[in-house]
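## retry 2 of 3
previous attempt timed out at serialization; input unchanged, resubmitting
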Amino acid sequence: MDTDIELPVAATRHREHLLIERLLKRTAFKLRFPERLETAYREYRDANAATQFRSSVIYIAYVYAGIGIMATVLVGHERMGLWPLTFSSFGLLLLVGWLMSFARSFHLYYQRLTSALAALAVMVAVTHPTLIGQQEMRILVHIGTVYVMVIIYLSLNLRFIYATLAGWGGGLAAFALQMLAGLEPEWRMLAPTYGGASLLGMALCYRGEYQSRRMFLQGRLLQQEKQRIQQLADRLETLSLVDSLTGLANRRSFDQVFEREWRRARREHHPMTLIFVDVDNFKAYNDFYGHQQGDDCLRQLAGIMTEHSARAGDFAARYGGEEFVLLYPGLGSEEAGVIAQRILESVRTRAMPHARSSVAEYVTLSLGVAALEPKAGVHEDRESLLRRADEAVYRAKRNGRNRFEVL
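## retry succeeded, writing output
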């Protein structure tokens, strides 16, 4: 990744890290984060809630069926009156919710849609007892209101604000409708059932969301830590493949790339060319100018190697000490010879002084060029190319240095 991009991203992550740590140190906090974290939390929470909603509806349907069977056994079918008809409205709401869960955009509007259905369920639950004439049955219906409130606050994964709006909004709307219709709510039964279950549900829902938000923050920190560790691992991997002095690839990296390109060349039947580069009289240069100047010389030469390996697939590496290696997939020896000559000319143009050279007054190179087309089934070819390039370098040195030889 580009450094100009890495720095702002790293700064943003650091700021978020500090913010999360501050939030976690608080003994309590409002059920709302700063905007960026709040958006991330809601997306995380609602996506999980929408995914689980369909299975939750199925479990709620089992409870719904169980309550219906239990009421039938306890009261008897002949004394139920309108109860089966009014009770079936809950089943209709469950069916609507289950069908809604198949919509592609359901997770985007999960809180609003589910809380709207929940509010309707509360309206039905609170109004239901006033429609039942039989006293024993009416008591059971009031008890059933507790189940409705528990489901809304604890089973639908609604955030606290939406669960509260559904629980109290649906109940207050039901009371208003009853009074407009001239019906008298049974306050003595509603207070411990609907009221008590609502208050308990609110407390548990608040605690649940509080814990959910803390877990989200802790998960966010863990994710950041994993990303940091991965970045460090990637950085270490990069450093293990890069020569720290010149910035070129190192010997290990060259071996990996050479093996990969060799297999490709053998598969695609195209030639492979190596150029070995050795700095003439470099020990004498180091002894006279010092190692710091010697390092600077190698860095300048590395820049020249980079300039002459600019094609896609070309590869330049520091092979070791004062040696460099250039890899040219798909290039023949004649074309590589032209590149070798240009490298020599670039070094001459740079004219780095070398008072202890046996060749010239400036730094010079000896280059060995070797080209070979890989052959399937011949495993020695890659090593053979290395040997030929190395032999060409020594031939250039024997023939006077500051030159290249081709084998």
